[in-house]
Amino acid sequence: MTNIIICGAPGSGKGTQSDLIVDRYGLVHLSTGDLLRAEIRSGSQLGKKIDSIISEGNLMPDDIMLSLLEQHIKSLPADTKGIILDGFPRTVHQAQDLEDLMLRTGDSTVAVIDLHVGEQELIQRLIYRGQVSGRADDNEHTIRHRLEVYHKQTEPVTAFYQQLGKYYRIDGTGEIADIFERISRTLDEKLN
Ligand code: AMP
User: Fold this and answer.
1) Above pLDDT 70, what percent of the chain?
2) Is 157 in contact with 81 (CB distance < 8 Å)?
3) Which residue, among 39, 93, 43, 28, has the nearest Cα to 66 in the 3D structure?
4) Rounded to two decimals, what is the model's pTM?
């Protein structure tokens, strides 16, 4: 499979752009946040643990995340062309584990799209999303904590992929269609 990673701070538009990428390139969207929220809705013991971690704006442990991801990838139909990974990896450890997993399965990550949006705009977008979607972690206190976690734990992932020559920083501001156009200029080369 030919995989793409979309990353960026909370509120940078990863989910919105992933939907457009799925439509144009025929990839399967895999959002680890969505996987976790589905587990919470199932009411399982693991779901309760996940709920408290997400509500506080912290990250789930790397080992749980990798096994959830691996399980999900294994359950995909054999003819899956590729995946757009949204929200994973969020730590350098996860990035290393993902590269190892790809080596084992013979798949590869061909591009890492990093959506860049200024802090003030991120906060405004997330507060608005919280009002519309009711997501428990989209309140101002948790948003600020999630941004801190992002800078500390997730931003170093960019250097990891820069070293591998797979990293593309994209301006994530402006109209949704214009942002997608910028992303497509990179992906057209990689996926067609
Ligand atoms: P998202 O929907 O991507 O914003 O994710 C919502 C929350 O799920 C995050 O704030 C984390 O608590 C958790 N989460 C999602 N993906 C990961 C991951 N790869 N590693 C750890 N925690 C994650």
Assistant:
1) 100
2) no
3) 93
4) 0.94
Instruction: Say yes or no: domain 2-26+80-186 is CATH 3.20.20.70.
Output: no
Pocket probe mutation, ligand 1, options 14, 90, 115, 149, max atoms within 8 Å of Cβ: 90
Given pLDDT bands bounded at 50, 70 and 90, which one contains residue 168? very high
Q: Is the minimum distance from the CB of 154 to ligand 1 under 6 angstroms?
A: no
Query: Which atom of ligand 1 is the closest one to the Cα of 34?
Result: 2
The finding on whether 53 has its CB within 6 A of some atom of ligand 1 is yes
The residues spanned by each domain of the chain are: 2-26+80-186
Please say whether the beta carbons of 122 and 12 come within 8 A: yes
Element (H, E) at 16: helix 14-25
Convert the pLDDT of each residue in 155-167 to its tens digit.
999 999 999 999 9
58 alpha carbon – ligand 1 mean position (Å): 8
